[in-house]
Structures are given as structure tokens and as C-alpha cells.
Amino acid sequence: MLRALPPAQLDYRPHAKSRSASQLVQLLVYEEQTGIELCEKGEIYWNEPKGFPTLEAMIADFERCHRAPGERLHKLDDEMWNRKAKLLVSGVPVIEATAGALFWMALFDAVHHRGQLGVYLRPMGGKVPSIYGPSADDPGG
């Protein structure tokens, strides 16, 4: 999905209140980073993600961050999965749940934002890749 984004159109947003394509990618990268933090500390200290200089830098960081939580998740036992964990915003706990529940919330949020980014592709001048099967732009294979 990220490689399908037209690099010159990363400021695209369908509405003034919507995040730009660049901000959505930054959010997806940041959510991957918070998974690492959750595994290591049992807490997520949420800060709004910062920018990247280029689309290639975003993709490289996403790929690096995407592998790390998976490696750590494989090492989590039931006790770690079920331990209490927190999501803090500006140092204030906003969600207290099990680590597993926070991982599921993050996964569903990432799925949502990835879908949002997919809707941006055509208006940005990009082509929708075959993600879950063929698209009108990519028959897959």
C-alpha cells in the first residue's frame, strides 16, 4: 500500500479535517513503534507522530518497525499477554487493559487507517494494489 502512494501527493487529504496521506503513513509507523514499547515496558506513551523527509524513509521505517513487534510477540507468554498495561497520552492514562487487548486495539486501528489510506490512492493519482485480492488497478498474481 505504501509503495503505491505517489510521492508528490503526500499532502493529499480529502477534507480539511482529515489527516494527510503522509500523516496516515506516519501514524501507521508510529503504531508499529508503540507495539515494541508495549512489549518492553507494558505501557504506551502516546505522542503524535513526527514527520519523515521522504516516502522512502517512511517505508523503510515502517518495514523496520513492522518486523520488531512480531518478533517480540512470539516471545510473549500468557502471563505477559494478560498483564495489565496502559496507554498514556501526555502522561495521563486513557486506557488500562491487558497488553493483549491493547495489541488488538492497535491492530484494528491500523487496519482502519490502512483502509483510509487505500481510499486516498485513486484521488491522489495512484493505483490501488492487490491487497486482499484483485483490484480494478491490479489483478494480483
Q: Mind explaining what this structure looks like?
A:
By secondary structure, the chain is an alpha+beta fold. The protein has one domain (2-124): Up-down Bundle (Four Helix Bundle (Hemerythrin (Met), subunit A)). The chain has four helices and three strands. A three-stranded mixed beta sheet has the order 1-2-3. A hairpin with a 2-residue loop joins strand 2 (84-89) and strand 3 (92-98). Helix 1 (21-41) packs parallel to helix 2. It is globular and about 45 Å long. It starts with 20 loop residues before the first helix and ends in a 17-residue tail after the last helix. 18% of the residues are buried.
Task: Give the uncertain stretches in residue-range form.
Answer: none
> What does the average pLDDT come to?
88
Helix content: 40-55%
Largest sheet: 3 strands, mixed
CATH class categorisation: Mainly Alpha
Number of domains: 1
Brief descriptors of the model:
alpha+beta; Four Helix Bundle (Hemerythrin (Met), subunit A)
Summarize the structure.
The protein is α+β, with helices and mostly antiparallel strands and 141 residues long. It has four helices and three strands, in the order αβααββα.
Itemize the secondary structure elements and their pairings.
Blueprint: H1 21-41, E1 43-46, H2 55-75, H3 78-81, E2 84-89, E3 92-98, H4 99-124
Parallel strand pairs: 1-2
Antiparallel strand pairs: 2-3
Helix pairs in contact: 1-2, 1-4
